[in-house]
Amino acid sequence: MLFRLLLLIVLNAVIASSGLAATPATAPTILVYGDSLSAAYGIPRDQGWVALLQQHLESQGLPHRVANASISGETTSGGASRMKSVLEQYQPDIVLLELGANDGLRGLPLADIQRNLVAMIEASQAAKARVVLLGMKIPPNYGPHYTRQFAECYAMLAQRYHLPLVTFFLTGIAGRPELVLDDGLHPTAAAQPMILNTVWKVLQPELDRKPVKPSKR
């Protein structure tokens, strides 16, 4: 009996020191659903803005657990196709939806981009998760009309579905060579706190709202 008690004490100490106890299974889950911009492309994963978000939540004494289901190269079509299974896997309370940049850079039809974003928003809401939409802008490669309508798509969907909106995910970063990798697209590690700050301004009020579904058991 004494041996079992000592073993239990040791195991608890190991778990506590590893940080595994910091985010219990009942903690509210924030799902980051994006592309390479959220998958820490080209930099150590623990320096990406999603990892920094988890650290910031903990520093604020907030219980939320961050799950990152972002995939480099993901399009809105790919995101829409796997959305249901990801929602079932993580059962998030909040979804940070950051997709569309790859579609825009390829000049894909705006109607398709919008339809896919709608599918992901509605699937998230059907799963009783609140959606925060992370808006994107693209270079004018395909002309001013396409570029403008691409950016306006996010604002329109945010208004239609009453979503909190980050107007431009890369505010203060795009167009600054010192803050992007050699490819001219992906933010450096130094830019990640700026992304977190941009997202946090819109996300933080959502953390104070009552959950739209029962607590996880």
Can you describe this structure?
The chain has seven helices and five strands. The chain has helices at residues 2-18, 49-59, 76-90, 101-105, 110-126, 144-160, 192-207, and strands at residues 29-34, 65-68, 94-98, 130-134, 165-166. A five-stranded parallel β-sheet has the order 2-1-3-4-5, sandwiched between helices. The chain is globular.
Low-confidence stretches: 1-23
Which structural category do the helix and sheet elements fall into?
alpha/beta
Strand order of the largest sheet: 2-1-3-4-5
Query: If you compute it from the alpha carbons, what radius of gyration comes out, rounded to the nearest whole angstrom?
Result: 19 Å
For the termini, the CA-CA separation is 30 Å
Secondary structure tally, helices: 7
Helix fraction bin: 40-55%
Major sheet: size, sense and barrel closure?
A: 5 strands, parallel
Secondary-structure element string: HEHEHEHHEHEH
Shape: globular
Task: Report strand %.
Answer: 5-15%
The overall strand count is: 5
Mean pLDDT comes to 89
